[in-house]
Amino acid sequence: IIIIIVVIIIGVVAFQPPTKPNDPQTVEYTVNDSASTTVTVALYPDRERSVHCIVQATNSNEAIVGFTEVTVPADPSADPNSSKRVDVDLATTQLAASGHVDSCWFE
């Protein structure tokens, strides 16, 4: 009976939906000028939950000079192994040195 309980617990843990999205990645960024940066991120859409991410631009001292949040809606036909590229335009308070996706979570 102990083996059955262990198998059930392993099955429940193994088949739970993930608590956070697959690793989002910064594909590229373009510093357009001192007021704008474009960041391209690769996100993995979920079939049942929206993915919400923070995207930011930082200056040469790594201070945040641009910030926004982006949402990728749930997509029942999404392939969880295939990322979706999203271009994000950021307004910046000064010239950025880089742009990146900071973190993501399910809504």
Question: Overview of this structure, please?
Answer:
The structure is a single chain. With 107 residues, the chain is mainly β. The chain has one helix and six strands; from the N terminus they run αββββββ. The strands form two sheets. A three-stranded antiparallel sheet has the order 1-2-5, with no helix packed on it. A hairpin with a 2-residue loop joins β1 (25-33) and β2 (36-43). It is elongated and about 65 Å long. Mean pLDDT is 86; it is low at 12-17.
What's the story with the biggest beta sheet?
3 strands, antiparallel
Bin the strand percentage.
Answer: over 45%
**N-to-C terminal Cα separation, in Å?**
38 Å
Instruction: Give the uncertain stretches in residue-range form.
Output: 12-17
What's the total count of β strands? Answer: 6
Order of SSEs: HEEEEEE
Helical content stands at 10-25%
Q: What is the approximate shape?
A: elongated
Quick summary of this structure?
This protein has 107 residues and is mainly β.
Task: Tell me the layout of helices and strands.
Layout: H1 2-14, E1 25-33, E2 36-43, E3 51-58, E4 64-72, E5 84-91, E6 98-106
Antiparallel strand pairs: 1-2, 2-5, 3-4, 3-6
List keywords for this structure.
107 residues; mainly beta; three-stranded antiparallel β-sheet; 1 helix; 12% helix; elongated
